[in-house]
Amino acid sequence: MFHFKGFKSIKGRIVLLFAAQSVIISIFFLLLSQFYSMNISIKNLDYNSTALVNSFEQTITNWIKERKRDITNLSMLPAIKEMDWNSIEPYLQELIAKDNYRYFMYFLADKNGDYHTTMQRNAGNIRDREYFNRVMNGETIISDPLISKSTGRQISVVATPVYDNKSNIVGLFAANIELKELNIWMKEFLISNDKSYSYIIDNSGLVITHPDESLIMNFNLFDYLKSTRGDINLFYKNEGKIQYKFENIDSYAYFKTIEGTSNWKIVTRISKEYLNKPVYNMILVLLITMTLCLFLSVFLAFLFARTISDPIIKLRNVFQHGLLGDIIDVRVEFESTDEIGEVALCFNQLMERNKILVNRVAEKGNELKEYIDHLTTFNGKISSEGNILIANQTMITKLNLQSKDILGKKIWDIEWFSNNINSIERIRENLLKTNTSEIICGEETILKGEYGYFSIEYSLRPVKNEKGSILFIIFEARDITDRIIMENELLNIKKLESIGVLAGGIAHDFNNILTGVLGMISLAKCYAKDGDEIYDKLASAEKSTLKAKDLTQQLLTFSKGGFPLMKTTHIKQVLTDSVEFGLSGSTIKWDIYIAPDILAVDIDEGQIYQVFSNIVINARQAMPVGGYLSVTAENFNNSEKINPLLDKKNYIRITFTDTGDGISDDIKKKIFDPYFSTKKEGSGLGLATSYSIIKKHDGYITIDSQLGHGASFIMYLPVSNNISIEDLSVQQFEKPVIKNKPINQTKTRKGKILVMDDDDIVLKVANGIMSYYEYEVVTVFNGMDAVNEIKAAHNSANKFDLIILDLTVPGGAGGREVIDTIKNIEPGIKAIVSSGYSNDPVVSEFKKYNFDGVVSKPYVAEQLMSVINELLKKY
Predict the structure, then answer these.
(1) What pLDDT does 209 receive?
(2) Which of 28, 643, 757, 859 lies in the 20 to 30 Å Cα band around 372?
């Protein structure tokens, strides 16, 4: 009759809605009527059933009371009170014959339980019977039913105590009574059919009476309820109602405890079938009415739905048309002003807003992509099998690769790890570990381009579904090359600091030893003639000893006392001279480029010359058969922290690049370590000394090299804040040259000299040299002894003309500590500071510290006497 397209359409839903509404209303009234009818029926049933149970209980209670009264009256007969069975038995037999009392056996028991019955004398002992003790305690009882062993009848025992004339209990009198009369009553109490009836149970739930005699003494209600998970707790009350199912029929059981029994209960069972019959009739009428209403509602709903669904179908067709093209630009043309027209208008407005939002989302998406692509960290998405799904631009750019070189490939198949097979295995293992871990971290060295390497630290974080399976893995890494460089730099600094403490002490002691050796040799030369064989040998020994002095100076660059003597200068001359001198006589070609605008620096020219020379020597040794050395010097602005190892200020950057065989990674880590060398010749201190000197200039030196591709030493020196390059004239740097000065045989006037040094050999050398020149010499071991000598001589005619003070005395006062005191005591005395620390500020600026001259250890006679003569000639 009607054509439905299904409930997915609005028309179908409207029809369904009306039909459902009719059904719901009908069901509501049906349930309401059923609920009301059921309540009325239950209330009536409760009232009638309770009244019936009460009536049954009262009838049975009266019957039990009569039985107890009969036995009690008989127990008062004199023969029974006297326990005279012979006298009373004939009378009892006569009563049984008359059957007026419904009893078929009487019995009498003494206090010990021995008893006689009307059927048998000396019948036995009943002391173990449950009711015996109760009766002997003065209670008249009716026992729970049992089956008589002698007759097979269902009986109960009615028993009462026997009292003598003094009211003492002397025995028990009882009778067996059949319950047949009760069963007859139960059959008379049938309510409507065999599914609604009354019966009696004892306190254990055992059926005592029942219309169905097969259940008597054979069926236990409590056990049945337990087996069907029924509730038996209510039976512990005196009266009540329970609901249960018996023989698959839902039923109600009304019960009440029978007075005068051991919790016997009269139970009336009412089947639900009996209760629900009027309710079912009402439901049938309502169902017929509901069906008619449903058909009427569906018909009306169909007519109404067409007026709504047609414009909606038109609206749907517009949407479907939009899905075939650009959904953002689709619009609905509608003329109606009803709710459908308003929906169309809202749709058009929504699409305009969506268009704006989509454009914004696209912009934000592009911004987010730009943000991720410009992160300094490497970010990506990896499958659980190791395929790279997403990689940000930072990763691609840093590795000099393209997207096609990365996306879709296994992470270990990319050339990043081709330099290290172990990296591939570690990456594989870490990906497997993501199955059992929340995050995996690691570090690797990555190949960048053709020659470059850099180090990364990375993390792998699995993203799992609800079942714990990995959906994908988030990969994040950062470049830690600079951090590792800084860590290595810090390690080098710590090494140098440790060596510096040792080197300072060694240099100091070694200088004192050299002073003794060199001084004694130079003193011995004074006693030999120039041209003699012994003189030449002493001169050779002196020259060799001076080489040891150079080694001492190298050690001092590591010590805390080896500070550079800063001077604002142009780097050009120092750089040019060191390269020319270092490569003279070699087959190596070289060039130097110095930027025209190169800035001035504050340096110790001698130390920086030594650094450049060491690097040139290293390049020369790296190219034994010739090659090319390129040297550049240019300004470097680190205000943007381009190099994280440098401060934010201006530097000049000097680069030495050779074409040698290059340096391996293992050697690069040790190349600035003291006494590390791959050459047979040399001390191994050259590059370590260079490193220490550059650090003391607040600069930085590093190496960049790969095996087979040469090496580059790069150093940074801070620009001077004192002077601009335009104000600085370039001066020729004078190479350090050791010159042997002849002994000045001309003697100055004699004088008195005090020498203070903690080393006995140094004192002997100084004493020997100056005594040779006929000076009066006094020697002491520390500064306080020197002060005491000055004080003692101050008031005498023989004062000291000159004093030579050792700069430092371990564990005592050195020259620096006592010079002011001595000058205060003897203002006119000339003071010379003596030290092996040639770069100490006191040595380099001795006049600033109240000294008049300086002599560096180890010294020869010519050096010492030259300074003394220069100071004392003013007398």
Answers:
(1) 87
(2) 643
Whether residue 568 is found in the same domain as residue 712: yes
Q: Where are the beta strands (DSSP E) in 10-113?
A: 103-110
Q: Tokens 């009264």, residue?
A: 69
Report which of residues 194 and 366 the model is more confident about. 366
**Cα atoms found within 13 Å of the Cα of residue 792, Cβ hemisphere only:** 8
Unique residue bearing structure tokens 């300086």: 854
Q: How far apart are the first and last CA of the chain?
A: 146
Q: What is the mean pLDDT of residues 508-534?
A: 72
Answer with the residue of higher pLDDT: 116 or 410. 116
Give me the pLDDT at residue 186, please. 75
Query: For residue 732, what pLDDT is reported?
Result: 35
Outline where 408-532 has alpha helix (H).
421-433, 481-526
Same domain, 77 and 58: no
**pLDDT tens digits, 378-405:** 778 888 787 888 887 777 777 777 777 7
C-alpha torsion sign, points 118, 123, 129, 135: positive
The dihedral formed by the CA atoms of 477, 482, 483 and 489, expressed in degrees to the nearest 10: 160
Answer whether residue 229 is part of any domain: yes
Establish if 22 belongs to a structural domain. no
Question: Does 81 or 194 have the greater pLDDT score?
Answer: 81
CA nearest neighbour of 247 among 266, 231, 224, 265: 224
Tell whether 588 and 607 lie within a shared domain. Answer: yes
Partners of 629 in the β-ladder: 590, 658
Mode of pairing for the β-strands spanning 830-835 and 802-806: parallel
Q: Are 480 and 456 in contact (CB under 8 A)?
A: yes
Beta carbons within 8 Å of 754's beta carbon, 6+ residues apart:
778, 779, 780, 786, 789, 790, 800, 802, 803, 804
Q: What is the CATH number of the domain that holds 782?
A: 3.40.50.2300
Tokens of 676: 């590390």
Would you say residue 287 lies in a domain?
Answer: no
CB 733 within 8 A of CB 605: yes
Same domain, 842 and 765: yes
Question: What's the chain's average pLDDT?
Answer: 78
Q: Are residues 514 and 657 in the same domain?
A: no
Short-list 186, 196, 187, CA closest to 253:
196
* 789 and 834 both lie in a single domain: yes
Residues 56 and 193 occupy one common structural domain: yes
Report the domain count for the chain.
Answer: 5
Q: Which domain holds residue 77?
A: 67-180
Write down how long the chain is: 875
Q: How far apart are CA 42 and CA 36, in angstroms?
A: 10
Q: 808: which 2 tokens?
A: 């430092």
Residues 456, 541, single domain; the answer is no
What CATH number is associated with residue 92?
3.30.450.20
pLDDT in tens, 680-711: 555 556 777 788 888 888 899 888 888 878 88
CA atoms of 71 and 51, how far apart (whole Å): 31
Write down the pTM of the prediction: 0.36
Minimal CA–CA distance to 281: which of 48, 42, 41?
41
Residue 321 lies inside a defined structural domain of this protein = no
For residues 193-198, average pLDDT? 70
